[in-house]
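can u do me a favor
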């Protein structure tokens, strides 16, 4: 049965390969997006922007909350207690 299935699905091989490649790219992008070191660096840059007067306190608070959420999600993903998106 396995051989017949493979022969019948052969025309879809490029699609399956493309889907695999897309999954790999998404996985790597998510890993970089939730990387604690990257998020901490962004938090430091955000604080520098506040100190330089480039953004106001409200904008800082909003962006800081987003970054802290990313940091929390990244920590959950690394411990395997995320929402099922860990690989």
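np, heres the sequence
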């Amino acid at each position: 049965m396995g051989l017949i299935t493979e022969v019948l699905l052969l025309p879809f091989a490029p699609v399956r390969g493309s889907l695999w490649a897309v999954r790999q790219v998404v996985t790597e992008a998510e890993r970089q997006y939730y990387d604690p070191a990257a998020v901490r660096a962004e938090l430091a840059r955000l604080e520098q922007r506040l100190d330089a007067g480039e953004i106001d306190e409200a904008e800082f608070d909003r962006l800081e909350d987003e970054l802290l959420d990313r940091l929390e999600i990244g920590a959950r993903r690394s411990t395997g207690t995320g929402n099922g998106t860990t690989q």
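The longest helix spans residues 57-79. hope that helps!!
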